[in-house]
Amino acid sequence: MKSLLHFFLFLIIIKLVHGRCDADDLSALLRLKKISPPPEAYVPPKLLSWNSSTNCCAWDGVTCSTDGHVIGLDVSGEFLEGRIDNSSSLFDLKHLQSLNLSRNCQVGNGFPIPPAIGKLTNLRYLNLSITCYTGQVPFAITRLTRLVTLDLSGNYNFGYTQLKLYNPDLSTLVQSLTELRELYLDGVTVSAWDTEWCQAISSSLPNLRVLSLSACNLSGPIDQSLAKLQSLSVIRLDDNDLPVPLPGVFANFSNLTSLSLRSCLVRGTFPEELFQVPTLQTVDLSDNPQLHGSFPEFPRNNSLQSLVLSNTKFSGILPKSIGNLKMLSMIDISGCSFSGSIPKSIQKLTQLVHLYMSSNRFSGPIDSIHWEKLLNLLNIVLDSNLLSGSIPSSIVSPPFLEKLLLSHNQFSGQLHEFSDVSSYLVTLDLSFNDLEGIVPLSIYNFRGLETLDLSSNNFSGFHFNSPQQLSNLSVINLSNNSLLVLYNGTTSSYSSFPQIVNLNLASNKLRTFPDFFRNHTGLAVLDLSQNQIQGTIPNWIWGLISLLNVNLSCNSFVTLEWPLTNSSGVSELDLHSNQLQGQIPVFLPYAGYLDYSRNHFSSSIPTNIVLSLRRNNLTGTIPGGVLEYCSFRILDLGENQIEGQVPKSLANCTELEILNLGINQITDTFPCFLKNISTLRILLLRSNNLYGGIGCSETNGTWPKLQIIDLAHNNFSGGIPARSLTTWQAMMANKDDSRSRARALEFPNDPGRAVVEFEYYAAITVIGKGLEMDLQKILTIFTLIDFSGNKFSGSIPKELGDLKSLYVLNLSSNAFTGEIPSSLGNLQKLESLDLSRNKLSGQIPPEFAELNFLSFLNLSNNQLVGRIPTSTQFTTFPKASFIGNKGLWGPPLTVDSKAGSPPPPPTLNGSQQNSGDEIDWDLISVEIGFVFGFGIAVGSLVFYKRWSKWYYKAMYKILVKIFPQLEERIGPHRRHVHITQRPRR
Ligand SMILES: *[C@@H]1O[C@H](CO)[C@@H](O)[C@H](O)[C@H]1NC(C)=O
Ligand SMILES: *[C@@H]1O[C@H](CO)[C@@H](O)[C@H](O)[C@H]1NC(C)=O
Fold first, then answer.
1. How far apart (Å, rounded) are the C-alpha atoms in residues 677 and 650?
2. Arithmetic mean of pLDDT, 255-274
3. Which of 196, 273, 291, 464 is the most exposed place for a label (fewest CB within 10 A)?
4. 235 CA distance to ligand 1 centroid (A)?
5. How far is the CA of 181 from the centre of ligand 1 (A)?
6. What is the CA radius of gyration of the chain?
């Protein structure tokens, strides 16, 4: 009885709350429901309850007034399937006060907002964010004069043009909608210049609480007039162009909670009192490289939760009072210029989850901080600073810690045993420090570790090389009297970090092959390069089923342990610079990249995409048979003792891009059959005994992609065939297509490489004045013709002048005659030109004065006459560039005498060496090499200061072309860039 009464009461309450659904509204809603998809497809969950047999006021997402009119509709994120246009029944819901259609992209579907929206004149709340409406916002919207909240943000995707506020413009809009408290127009193109937008808003909307105009194409400063908006709580102006100092107005807003000015080009000094506003919760000023500032003392009463200042010029120290930010959960000040020590008081930030402070100048120790008190930390990112001292063992104690990056600092000494460790740690990067000694035992307790990078330290080994040795131990007594449960009888196989994917121990002092990862089948990347590991490469590593990328280069390995399985999935193996002997192992069926160079291998050649056997002891002839089904794209047999002829079977290598046979003892005529390999980019035949002409009159093949041809130091004779030159299109490229060329050389996407980012490079080794340099990536845009040291004769073909993107041309030490063609003056990118030691006559073409990039010129020891062209460029060349000619005069050979007096006699013949810091181009050799690894490894070049200045500059220029972001990155903001030093080969 009682329950029946309750039931009736319940019904009455329902009636009171919902009223009775208005018939017209019901019909409108049912028609609206029809835009949802057919029944068998996905039905939006809220619309499931929209059933004509029930009261529509009880439907999900529907709110009614007491008299049964629908006044609120919220179908946000329901993935409605149909478009809402002028004919939609939605606009019959005349009593609507609140409409939320957000996150329904089919609703707008790239069409304009329907003007019928103007019928809903009772609306207080309108949310059309992420509805994929586009084009001009209709005038009809200005009729919604009661609007308190208008959200049109996020409508700028799917390749359609975004929403625009041109007509009506922002002023017209806000003059009509004077009740607005919250205005979200993020991503709407607002055509407002200068301070127009500030003035429009501040004069019409004095009670505004939320101003969210990110990516609105605003291009004017923030104006003092905004000071009128005393109620502002949220200010979001990211991704606009506000290129002047910020006014101090914001600090007066007593209710300010959120200020976001990311990537706004704001300059000047940030008003620091803003950080002291007691209501402020989030600040994002990141990516404003001209914005300066520093931290004030933080007051005790504050609400700061998120402080993001990355990539700005904020500087100074972190004040001790940072410990007052009790609510702080996120601090990102990476890529700023902060200095001084990290104050101990940060241990009071118990709410802190993300700590990002990389790439600053923080110094001093961090071991007095009680890291274990920071119970909520997930990320500690302190890399690329000047921090020193020991690494505190408590730093891994925050129980949920996932990422710890301390690389590129000056931490030193031994690692102490870690007492409490986060079992969530996924990434531990201590690389590029001065840590030494044995890696502590407790490292095996990071059970979730996926990336361990200890590279570029001085670690000498692991406590127990193989944890299996510990299988009987369950408790280990640590020096600090704590007990560490490590292994537990049967669980021993789960010791250490079974999840490891990426293990980098390169550049340490390991002497034995670490084998604690023997059972870790998830390992994909193993880098043990540049250690002192001796003896045998164990064969169990080839059984690790996920292994893709193995770098064991630059050690002292002598043998590979047999038998070698041939089922390994390793796709990249670098064994270069060891002492491996005997037969070349052929056992990796999926390898696309193998570097066996600089070992003592003797013979047999595996088939892969890339093969480098440079600087081995290959002797005798190249066996023709191995090239029968050739799929090499790169074949590097340089610097061996190969004799005999160039094997004709190379013609089977129809995808060959790079061929290096340089520095061998091959005796043959020019391999004309290579002309049929149209993919060839780089051909290196220097320093062999090749002879005869290079005309190849019997082949029609061409080399449209050829970038580098080096035939130096052979016995080639005859003329340079002009006809061939006209087909070398890659050297003619007029446009600056260096990027696309760099891309074209990359290897095609191959699913097997998904985990390992395969980094290909071609390197030139420049030997000059005792310097040896590898230039990675340079070859990708480098162009060079080197025919020096042969017996070429005849005149220099004028067609050479068509090779407009040529960087280096060396025809020295031949028997060329006739005049220097003036067309060479067209080679506007030329940086080095050597025509010395020929029999060239006539004058230096005056066009040479225009060669602006020319940094090295040698015309010495010819029969040139006349005055040396005068230009700023020419005055920088030394005398040695011109000596040994019959009748050259003028600076720099002879000081210009007064007008009228006869030209002074030219200096005598001489074979004087080049003076100054110039590289002796006669000693330049071109080599090919490969590296694989992560990130960009260009540092060795960019920071190699000792290198001849001009070459440094020229190559830097090229690098910046390849990596336009480089300039920015190696500036003060080094965030996320790890410049790695590569081993010299
Ligand atoms: C700040 O917020 C409070 C509480 O919402 C409100 O009472 C007060 O009027 C606001 N101040 C201003 C200047 O708008
Ligand atoms: C040790 O092994 C036993 C049984 O094999 C298991 O119950 C116990 O949880 C293990 N202890 C640890 C610390 O792994």
1. 9
2. 93
3. 273
4. 16
5. 12
6. 36
Site to substitute for ligand 1 among 250, 255, 280, 281, most atoms within 8 A of C-beta:
255
Domain ranges of the chain: 646-901, 906-985
- Which of 344-353, 487-496, 612-621, 947-956 is most confident? 344-353
Question: CB neighbours (10 Å) of residue 717?
Answer: 16
Distances in Å between the alpha carbon of 293 and those of 157, 272, 274, 672? Answer: 35, 7, 11, 66
* Ligand with minimal distance to 231 CA: 1
What mean pLDDT is predicted for residues 619-631? 64
Read off the pLDDT of residues 490-520 as tens digits, 9 standing for 90 and up: 333 335 677 899 999 999 999 999 877 877 8
Q: How far is the CA of 488 from the centre of ligand 2 (A)?
A: 6
Structure tokens that stand for 719 in this block: 């003329």
DSSP at 193: B
CATH superfamily of 646-901: Ribonuclease Inhibitor (3.80.10.10)
Distance from C-alpha of 539 to C-alpha of 436, rounded to nearest angstrom:
28
Tokens encoding 365: 């120790």
d(CA 575, CA 869): 52
User: What's the CA gap between 709 and 696, in Å, rounded?
Assistant: 15
**Are 393 and 411 a contacting pair, CB within 8 Å?**
no
pLDDT one-digit tens code per residue, 408-419: 999 999 998 887
Pocket of ligand 2 (CB under 6 A): 485, 488, 490-491
Q: Is the pTM higher than 0.70? A: no
Of 14-23, 139-148, 661-670, the range with the highest mean pLDDT is 139-148
Residue 617, ligand 1, Cβ within 6 A: no
Q: Where are the beta strands (DSSP E) in 561-679?
A: 572-574, 581-582, 593-595, 600-601, 610-612, 619-620, 634-636, 641-644, 658-660, 665-666
